[in-house]
Automatic annotation (TrEMBL):
Described function: Involved in DNA repair and RecF pathway recombination.
Keyword list, A-Z: DNA damage, DNA recombination, DNA repair
Gene assigned in the entry: recO
Family: Belongs to the RecO family.
Source taxon at top rank: Bacteria
Protein name per the record: DNA repair protein RecO
Length: 249
């Protein structure tokens, strides 16, 4: 059967002599693997289409739910800036690996596609990668059913005052209910406001947010802990990103 989809290359690997297998996050068919014959050859017309972060239209033949074979395709947005800067490439790779691990094969991918497309586009535009990535992580957590409860305390209806965040329980605790998790993390007012904003904001509507360095560091630590505890994900791209940031300090 012939398929025609829009998708983003979230993984690209060599296969055999001169070929590639790419994994797409598609707008209409979720996550799909596609075999691209001769993509590594110097004069291949598909060379640009199989690059990581590429957003394009892909026509492929597939029988059942197995791997497709590319017939033809067209690049819509190359996102080449992400491949030209090692830091941006690291953030882009993390976003793509996150979707690759969290999105099941053939699961409806419209939401994931829209959020990833916006994430990569904003990275290319030079938006703050720490804030952008924290928001993207929040959207992934929510889509996977693990979005943290940040509007009210998990054990009361309190919305104002001092709060602590329980990564294990998945939400905020008031001063009175902090005993529910002694390991809960104290939240500054700025981080709590950001978490509440992230919980209700579609990444496609993100404007410019000016955040203090201390707040950036705090939100980054919190979201990283959530991804590891709630989703159980320890990604290679995340470890590389952390090593890169230590090197740049």
């Amino acid at each position: 059967m012939l398929y025609r989809v829009q998708g983003i290359v979230i993984r690209s690997m060599d296969y055999g002599e001169g070929n590639k297998i790419i994994t797409l996050c598609t707008e209409s068919h979720g996550k799909i693997a596609v075999f691209v014959r001769g993509a590594r050859k110097a004069k291949s017309r598909h060379a640009a289409l199989v690059q990581p972060f590429t957003y394009g239209e892909f026509n492929f033949i597939r029988s059942g739910t197995g791997m497709g074979t590319l017939n033809q395709g067209e690049v819509i947005e190359s996102n080449h800036k992400l491949r030209e800067d090692i830091t941006l490439a690291a953030y882009g790779a993390y976003g793509c690996e996150l979707v690759d691990k969290a999105l099941l094969d053939n699961e409806t991918g419209h939401f994931w596609f829209d959020q990833l497309k916006a994430y990569l586009s904003f990275l290319s535009e030079g938006r703050d990668p720490v804030i952008l990535t924290a928001l993207f992580e929040m959207k992934v957590l929510q889509a996977a059913g693990y979005g943290p409860q940040v509007d009210t305390c998990m054990f009361s209806d309190e919305t104002e005052g001092e709060f602590w965040l329980s990564v294990r329980l998945g939400g905020i605790l008031s001063k009175r209910e902090r005993r529910q998790d002694p390991a809960a993390i104290a939240l500054s007012p700025g981080v709590l406001r950001l978490l509440r904003l992230f919980a209700r904001l579609d990444i496609r509507r993100l404007g410019n947010i000016d955040v203090r360095e201390e707040t950036r560091a705090e939100i980054k630590q919190i979201m990283s802990a959530f991804m590891e505890v709630q989703l159980g994900l320890k990604l290679k791209s995340r470890r590389f990103l952390e090593q890169l940031e230590k090197f740049e300090m």
